[in-house]
Design a protein that fits this description.
- This protein has 131 residues and is mostly helical.
- It is 76% helix and 0% strand.
- It has helices at 2-26, 28-32, 42-61, 63-79, 81-89, 102-124.
- The longest helix has 25 residues, at 2-26.
- The chain is globular, with a radius of gyration of 16 Å.
- The protein starts with a helix and ends in a 7-residue tail after the last helix.
- 16% of the residues are buried.
Length: 131
């Protein structure tokens, strides 16, 4: 069971970020609206974020790069915090994009984001799938 759970969390993370990264190119307007206006070149930020998510997701799937990729995801998630704060500042509703109750924006920042950070930290510590 422990081996199954490790595989599930590793491969789940890899594919989660791989598909999230691809989505930056499929629906860029969704992500562009979430980039705070004080950042210049939001299109470039979206492209670089998408590339990073794809590469880091793939890196998690490949054992020799798993630890570095998981730490890369951890750092990337820290970099995404201003976007979550901005989303709350605009009332958790982006016109033509993501619109949720404001309390859900807080849950996203204060609960879901730390879970993603811990997930990346946990995956970075896995030396083997054997035990």
């Amino acid at each position: 069971m422990k081996k199954f759970l490790k595989k599930l969390l590793i491969y789940g993370m890899g594919y989660f970020y791989l598909f999230a990264g691809i989505n930056h190119f499929v629906t860029p307007d969704f992500y562009l609206a979430l980039i705070p206006p004080f950042f210049s070149k939001p299109e470039l930020i979206n492209i670089l974020s998408g590339i990073a998510e794809i590469l880091l997701g793939l890196g998690v799937l490949y054992f020799p790069t798993r630890r570095r990729a998981a730490w890369g995801i951890f750092v990337m998630l820290i970099c995404f915090i201003p976007s979550h704060v901005y989303f709350i500042q605009v009332g958790s509703c982006i016109e033509g994009g993501l619109c949720v109750p404001e309390w859900l924006g807080w849950i996203r920042l204060l609960l879901f984001h730390p879970i993603l950070l811990y997930w990346a930290f946990w995956v970075s510590k896995i030396d083997s799938l054997e035990n």
